[in-house]
Write a structure and sequence with these properties.
The complex is a heterodimer of chains A (187) and B (168). By secondary structure, chain A is an alpha/beta fold. In chain A, 33% of the residues lie in helices and 13% in strands. Chain A has a domain of 117 residues: Rossmann fold (3-Layer(aba) Sandwich), CATH 3.40.50. Chain A is built from six helices and six strands. In chain A, helix 2 links the parallel strand 3 and strand 4. With 168 residues, chain B is an alpha/beta fold. Chain B has a single domain, classed as NADH:ubiquinone oxidoreductase Nqo5 subunit (Beta Polymerase, domain 2, 2-Layer Sandwich). Chain B has three helices and seven strands. The longest helix of chain B has 12 residues. The chains are: A alpha/beta (187), B alpha/beta (168). Chains A and B meet through loops of A and loops of B.
Chain lengths: 187, 168
Protein backbone atom coordinates (compact mmCIF):
# COMPACT_ATOMS: atom_id res chain seq x y z
CA UNK A 1 0.00 0.00 0.00
CA UNK A 2 1.77 3.04 -1.24
CA UNK A 3 1.30 6.44 0.29
CA UNK A 4 -0.18 9.02 -1.96
CA UNK A 5 1.28 12.39 -1.31
CA UNK A 6 -0.34 15.46 -2.65
CA UNK A 7 1.92 17.67 -4.70
CA UNK A 8 2.69 20.73 -2.60
CA UNK A 9 1.54 23.98 -4.05
CA UNK A 10 4.20 26.64 -3.90
CA UNK A 11 4.03 28.37 -0.49
CA UNK A 12 2.79 31.91 -0.49
CA UNK A 13 4.83 34.36 1.49
CA UNK A 14 2.30 36.46 3.32
CA UNK A 15 2.79 40.19 3.08
CA UNK A 16 5.69 39.67 0.71
CA UNK A 17 7.06 42.69 -1.09
CA UNK A 18 6.51 42.79 -4.86
CA UNK A 19 8.86 40.41 -6.61
CA UNK A 20 9.19 37.45 -8.88
CA UNK A 21 7.85 34.23 -7.43
CA UNK A 22 7.90 30.68 -8.73
CA UNK A 23 8.48 27.06 -7.76
CA UNK A 24 11.06 27.23 -4.98
CA UNK A 25 12.26 30.75 -5.47
CA UNK A 26 11.36 34.32 -4.76
CA UNK A 27 13.26 37.23 -6.17
CA UNK A 28 13.00 40.82 -5.05
CA UNK A 29 15.32 43.74 -4.45
CA UNK A 30 17.87 43.59 -1.61
CA UNK A 31 16.21 46.61 0.07
CA UNK A 32 12.92 44.76 0.29
CA UNK A 33 14.43 41.46 1.43
CA UNK A 34 16.42 43.15 4.19
CA UNK A 35 13.41 45.24 5.15
CA UNK A 36 11.29 42.10 5.41
CA UNK A 37 13.86 40.43 7.66
CA UNK A 38 14.33 43.50 9.84
CA UNK A 39 10.65 44.24 10.20
CA UNK A 40 9.88 40.76 11.45
CA UNK A 41 12.65 40.57 14.02
CA UNK A 42 12.65 43.94 15.71
CA UNK A 43 14.41 43.83 19.06
CA UNK A 44 12.77 46.36 21.33
CA UNK A 45 14.42 48.09 24.26
CA UNK A 46 11.65 48.83 26.78
CA UNK A 47 12.18 52.09 28.64
CA UNK A 48 9.22 51.80 30.98
CA UNK A 49 8.75 54.35 33.74
CA UNK A 50 5.08 54.12 34.70
CA UNK A 51 1.62 52.75 33.93
CA UNK A 52 2.21 52.52 30.17
CA UNK A 53 4.98 50.09 31.09
CA UNK A 54 2.37 47.90 32.80
CA UNK A 55 0.32 47.89 29.58
CA UNK A 56 3.49 46.95 27.74
CA UNK A 57 3.93 43.97 30.07
CA UNK A 58 0.44 42.83 29.08
CA UNK A 59 1.42 43.36 25.44
CA UNK A 60 4.38 41.05 25.90
CA UNK A 61 2.42 38.41 27.82
CA UNK A 62 0.40 35.50 26.46
CA UNK A 63 -2.93 37.22 25.67
CA UNK A 64 -1.61 39.86 23.31
CA UNK A 65 1.76 38.24 22.64
CA UNK A 66 4.02 40.64 20.83
CA UNK A 67 6.06 37.57 19.80
CA UNK A 68 3.54 37.09 17.00
CA UNK A 69 5.12 40.11 15.35
CA UNK A 70 8.67 38.86 15.78
CA UNK A 71 9.46 41.12 18.72
CA UNK A 72 9.62 38.66 21.61
CA UNK A 73 13.30 39.20 22.17
CA UNK A 74 13.62 42.24 24.41
CA UNK A 75 17.04 43.74 24.39
CA UNK A 76 18.01 45.37 27.64
CA UNK A 77 21.29 46.40 26.09
CA UNK A 78 20.93 49.40 23.77
CA UNK A 79 23.78 48.01 21.64
CA UNK A 80 21.64 45.17 20.31
CA UNK A 81 18.32 47.00 20.22
CA UNK A 82 16.53 48.21 17.09
CA UNK A 83 13.56 49.94 18.63
CA UNK A 84 13.51 52.21 21.67
CA UNK A 85 10.08 52.00 23.31
CA UNK A 86 9.62 54.88 25.74
CA UNK A 87 6.61 54.19 27.92
CA UNK A 88 5.65 56.57 30.67
CA UNK A 89 6.36 59.96 32.16
CA UNK A 90 9.89 61.17 31.56
CA UNK A 91 10.97 63.69 34.18
CA UNK A 92 13.39 66.36 33.05
CA UNK A 93 16.05 64.66 35.12
CA UNK A 94 15.46 61.47 33.12
CA UNK A 95 15.70 63.26 29.75
CA UNK A 96 19.49 62.94 29.40
CA UNK A 97 19.21 59.23 30.25
CA UNK A 98 16.72 58.63 27.40
CA UNK A 99 19.02 60.53 25.10
CA UNK A 100 22.06 58.55 26.17
CA UNK A 101 20.25 55.26 25.64
CA UNK A 102 19.26 56.46 22.17
CA UNK A 103 22.83 57.46 21.36
CA UNK A 104 24.09 54.04 22.45
CA UNK A 105 21.80 52.26 20.01
CA UNK A 106 23.34 51.26 16.69
CA UNK A 107 21.79 52.26 13.36
CA UNK A 108 19.26 51.41 12.11
CA UNK A 109 17.21 52.52 15.10
CA UNK A 110 13.63 53.54 15.63
CA UNK A 111 11.78 55.17 18.50
CA UNK A 112 8.18 54.76 19.60
CA UNK A 113 6.60 57.03 22.22
CA UNK A 114 3.90 55.07 24.04
CA UNK A 115 1.24 57.03 25.89
CA UNK A 116 0.35 60.66 26.40
CA UNK A 117 3.25 61.42 28.76
CA UNK A 118 6.00 60.16 26.48
CA UNK A 119 4.33 61.86 23.51
CA UNK A 120 3.59 65.27 24.99
CA UNK A 121 3.98 65.30 28.76
CA UNK A 122 0.34 64.27 29.14
CA UNK A 123 -1.39 65.57 32.23
CA UNK A 124 1.95 66.51 33.75
CA UNK A 125 2.15 70.06 32.48
CA UNK A 126 4.60 71.00 35.18
CA UNK A 127 8.11 72.32 35.71
CA UNK A 128 9.61 68.91 36.46
CA UNK A 129 8.35 66.86 33.50
CA UNK A 130 9.76 66.70 29.99
CA UNK A 131 6.99 67.80 27.63
CA UNK A 132 7.35 64.85 25.25
CA UNK A 133 10.45 62.80 24.48
CA UNK A 134 10.68 64.43 21.05
CA UNK A 135 12.31 67.30 22.95
CA UNK A 136 15.44 65.12 23.29
CA UNK A 137 15.27 62.32 20.68
CA UNK A 138 13.53 61.97 17.30
CA UNK A 139 10.36 59.85 17.44
CA UNK A 140 9.02 57.65 14.62
CA UNK A 141 5.61 56.62 15.98
CA UNK A 142 3.43 58.10 18.71
CA UNK A 143 0.87 55.89 20.45
CA UNK A 144 -1.89 57.95 22.11
CA UNK A 145 -3.74 56.89 25.23
CA UNK A 146 -3.48 57.24 28.97
CA UNK A 147 -2.44 54.48 29.13
CA UNK A 148 -3.00 52.94 25.68
CA UNK A 149 -4.44 49.45 25.53
CA UNK A 150 -2.16 46.62 24.38
CA UNK A 151 -3.95 46.61 21.02
CA UNK A 152 -2.86 50.20 20.50
CA UNK A 153 0.74 49.38 21.38
CA UNK A 154 0.63 46.50 18.89
CA UNK A 155 -0.78 48.90 16.32
CA UNK A 156 2.21 51.16 16.98
CA UNK A 157 4.57 48.22 16.53
CA UNK A 158 2.99 47.34 13.18
CA UNK A 159 3.33 50.98 12.12
CA UNK A 160 7.03 50.72 12.96
CA UNK A 161 7.19 47.51 10.92
CA UNK A 162 5.72 49.36 7.93
CA UNK A 163 8.41 52.01 8.31
CA UNK A 164 11.14 49.38 8.56
CA UNK A 165 9.90 47.49 5.51
CA UNK A 166 9.60 50.49 3.27
CA UNK A 167 12.66 52.40 4.28
CA UNK A 168 15.77 52.72 2.19
CA UNK A 169 18.78 50.81 3.50
CA UNK A 170 20.67 54.06 3.10
CA UNK A 171 18.28 56.02 5.26
CA UNK A 172 20.99 57.41 7.46
CA UNK A 173 22.82 58.81 4.42
CA UNK A 174 19.82 60.79 3.28
CA UNK A 175 19.97 64.55 3.73
CA UNK A 176 16.59 64.59 5.52
CA UNK A 177 17.79 62.11 8.10
CA UNK A 178 21.03 63.95 8.62
CA UNK A 179 19.16 67.23 9.00
CA UNK A 180 16.84 65.59 11.55
CA UNK A 181 19.78 64.28 13.56
CA UNK A 182 21.52 67.63 13.35
CA UNK A 183 18.39 69.31 14.75
CA UNK A 184 18.82 67.16 17.85
CA UNK A 185 22.57 67.79 17.97
CA UNK A 186 23.39 64.18 17.05
CA UNK A 187 25.71 63.43 14.12
CA UNK B 1 4.14 56.41 82.97
CA UNK B 2 2.34 59.71 83.12
CA UNK B 3 1.46 61.23 79.78
CA UNK B 4 3.65 64.20 78.95
CA UNK B 5 1.32 67.15 78.45
CA UNK B 6 1.70 69.98 75.97
CA UNK B 7 1.36 72.52 78.78
CA UNK B 8 4.21 71.02 80.78
CA UNK B 9 6.33 70.89 77.63
CA UNK B 10 5.57 74.49 76.70
CA UNK B 11 6.33 75.73 80.23
CA UNK B 12 9.69 74.01 80.24
CA UNK B 13 10.56 75.47 76.82
CA UNK B 14 9.43 78.97 77.75
CA UNK B 15 11.40 78.85 81.00
CA UNK B 16 14.51 78.01 79.08
CA UNK B 17 14.09 80.11 75.90
CA UNK B 18 11.66 82.90 76.86
CA UNK B 19 11.84 85.56 74.14
CA UNK B 20 12.93 83.19 71.40
CA UNK B 21 9.45 81.63 71.43
CA UNK B 22 7.45 84.07 69.29
CA UNK B 23 4.17 82.19 69.48
CA UNK B 24 2.57 78.92 70.49
CA UNK B 25 -0.67 77.24 69.52
CA UNK B 26 -2.25 73.81 69.65
CA UNK B 27 -4.10 72.97 66.43
CA UNK B 28 -5.52 69.43 66.68
CA UNK B 29 -3.61 68.92 69.90
CA UNK B 30 -0.22 69.33 68.22
CA UNK B 31 1.94 71.83 70.06
CA UNK B 32 3.18 74.29 67.45
CA UNK B 33 5.87 76.84 68.21
CA UNK B 34 6.95 79.85 66.23
CA UNK B 35 10.62 80.19 67.00
CA UNK B 36 13.29 82.78 66.33
CA UNK B 37 15.45 81.11 63.63
CA UNK B 38 18.65 82.00 65.48
CA UNK B 39 17.62 79.86 68.43
CA UNK B 40 16.36 76.89 66.45
CA UNK B 41 19.36 74.61 66.74
CA UNK B 42 19.70 75.35 70.43
CA UNK B 43 16.02 74.56 71.03
CA UNK B 44 16.10 71.31 69.09
CA UNK B 45 19.27 70.27 70.88
CA UNK B 46 17.57 71.01 74.21
CA UNK B 47 14.56 68.88 73.23
CA UNK B 48 16.84 66.12 71.98
CA UNK B 49 19.01 65.92 75.09
CA UNK B 50 16.37 66.66 77.74
CA UNK B 51 16.18 63.65 80.03
CA UNK B 52 12.39 63.66 80.15
CA UNK B 53 11.33 64.89 76.69
CA UNK B 54 13.82 63.08 74.44
CA UNK B 55 12.61 64.29 71.04
CA UNK B 56 15.04 62.12 69.14
CA UNK B 57 13.15 61.38 65.94
CA UNK B 58 12.98 63.93 63.14
CA UNK B 59 9.76 63.16 61.26
CA UNK B 60 9.84 65.85 58.63
CA UNK B 61 11.32 69.10 57.44
CA UNK B 62 9.40 71.14 54.94
CA UNK B 63 9.11 74.65 53.60
CA UNK B 64 6.29 77.07 52.93
CA UNK B 65 5.97 80.34 51.07
CA UNK B 66 3.61 83.17 52.03
CA UNK B 67 4.33 85.95 49.54
CA UNK B 68 2.02 88.46 51.29
CA UNK B 69 3.65 88.10 54.66
CA UNK B 70 6.26 90.84 54.25
CA UNK B 71 9.57 90.14 55.97
CA UNK B 72 8.55 86.58 56.85
CA UNK B 73 7.74 85.15 53.45
CA UNK B 74 9.41 81.81 53.89
CA UNK B 75 8.95 79.23 56.59
CA UNK B 76 11.02 76.23 57.50
CA UNK B 77 8.93 73.75 59.47
CA UNK B 78 10.13 70.86 61.62
CA UNK B 79 8.20 67.96 63.06
CA UNK B 80 9.84 66.15 65.96
CA UNK B 81 8.65 62.99 67.64
CA UNK B 82 9.48 61.72 71.08
CA UNK B 83 9.19 57.97 70.70
CA UNK B 84 9.53 57.42 74.44
CA UNK B 85 6.67 59.76 75.36
CA UNK B 86 4.66 59.22 72.17
CA UNK B 87 4.25 62.96 71.67
CA UNK B 88 4.95 65.23 68.74
CA UNK B 89 5.91 68.85 68.38
CA UNK B 90 5.99 71.20 65.41
CA UNK B 91 8.46 74.06 65.16
CA UNK B 92 8.16 76.86 62.62
CA UNK B 93 10.86 79.37 61.73
CA UNK B 94 9.79 82.31 59.59
CA UNK B 95 12.47 83.83 57.38
CA UNK B 96 12.55 86.81 55.08
CA UNK B 97 12.91 86.06 51.38
CA UNK B 98 15.92 88.40 51.22
CA UNK B 99 17.72 86.61 54.00
CA UNK B 100 16.55 82.98 54.05
CA UNK B 101 19.13 81.56 56.43
CA UNK B 102 18.56 79.07 59.22
CA UNK B 103 20.85 76.64 61.03
CA UNK B 104 21.09 73.13 59.71
CA UNK B 105 19.96 70.29 61.97
CA UNK B 106 22.50 67.90 60.47
CA UNK B 107 24.76 67.99 63.57
CA UNK B 108 21.87 66.39 65.51
CA UNK B 109 19.99 64.35 62.91
CA UNK B 110 21.68 62.63 59.97
CA UNK B 111 18.19 62.38 58.46
CA UNK B 112 18.05 66.16 58.17
CA UNK B 113 20.61 66.04 55.35
CA UNK B 114 18.32 65.06 52.45
CA UNK B 115 15.26 66.77 53.90
CA UNK B 116 17.08 70.09 54.07
CA UNK B 117 18.39 69.59 50.56
CA UNK B 118 14.82 69.09 49.38
CA UNK B 119 13.64 72.23 51.20
CA UNK B 120 16.52 74.14 49.66
CA UNK B 121 15.72 72.74 46.23
CA UNK B 122 12.08 73.83 46.27
CA UNK B 123 12.15 77.00 48.40
CA UNK B 124 15.72 78.26 48.34
CA UNK B 125 16.11 78.25 52.11
CA UNK B 126 19.81 78.18 52.98
CA UNK B 127 20.73 75.85 55.85
CA UNK B 128 23.89 77.10 57.51
CA UNK B 129 26.32 74.31 58.30
CA UNK B 130 24.81 71.78 55.92
CA UNK B 131 27.60 69.56 54.54
CA UNK B 132 26.29 69.26 50.98
CA UNK B 133 23.57 71.79 50.22
CA UNK B 134 22.71 71.21 46.55
CA UNK B 135 19.60 70.23 44.59
CA UNK B 136 18.28 66.76 45.27
CA UNK B 137 15.14 66.22 43.13
CA UNK B 138 15.17 68.81 40.37
CA UNK B 139 17.63 68.98 37.50
CA UNK B 140 20.90 70.65 38.44
CA UNK B 141 20.52 73.22 35.65
CA UNK B 142 17.30 74.61 37.13
CA UNK B 143 17.89 78.24 38.04
CA UNK B 144 14.95 78.91 40.38
CA UNK B 145 13.12 77.35 43.31
CA UNK B 146 9.91 76.04 41.78
CA UNK B 147 7.55 75.96 44.77
CA UNK B 148 7.92 79.66 45.42
CA UNK B 149 4.65 81.21 44.42
CA UNK B 150 6.05 83.74 41.94
CA UNK B 151 6.87 80.89 39.53
CA UNK B 152 4.16 79.24 37.42
CA UNK B 153 3.51 75.57 37.94
CA UNK B 154 3.08 74.82 34.24
CA UNK B 155 6.01 74.07 32.01
CA UNK B 156 6.64 76.97 29.67
CA UNK B 157 7.97 74.80 26.84
CA UNK B 158 4.65 73.02 26.26
CA UNK B 159 3.47 73.42 22.67
CA UNK B 160 0.29 71.36 22.30
CA UNK B 161 -2.09 73.49 24.36
CA UNK B 162 -3.90 76.74 23.65
CA UNK B 163 -2.04 79.10 25.98
CA UNK B 164 -5.01 81.39 26.56
CA UNK B 165 -6.82 78.58 28.41
CA UNK B 166 -3.93 77.97 30.75
CA UNK B 167 -2.91 81.42 31.87
CA UNK B 168 0.23 81.67 29.80
Amino acid sequence: MGKISKPMSSPIITQAPPGLQGEGFFATSLDKAVGLARANSIWPLPFATSCCGIEFMATMAANYDMARFGSERLSFSPRQADLLMVMGTIAKKMGPVVRQVYLQMAEPRWVIAVGACASSGGIFDTYSVLQGIDKVVPVDVYVPGCPPRPEQILDGITKIQELVKNESLRRRNSPEYQALMASYGIQ
Amino acid sequence: MAQLSNGHLLNAIQDKFGNAILGAEEPNGLLTLNVNPEKLLELVRFLYNHEEFRFQFLTDICGAHFPDQKGAELASIYHLHSLENNIRIRIKCFLSADHPFVDSLTPLFAAANWQERETFDFYGIIFNGHPNLKRILNVDEMDYHPLRKEYPLEDQTRTDKNDSYFGR
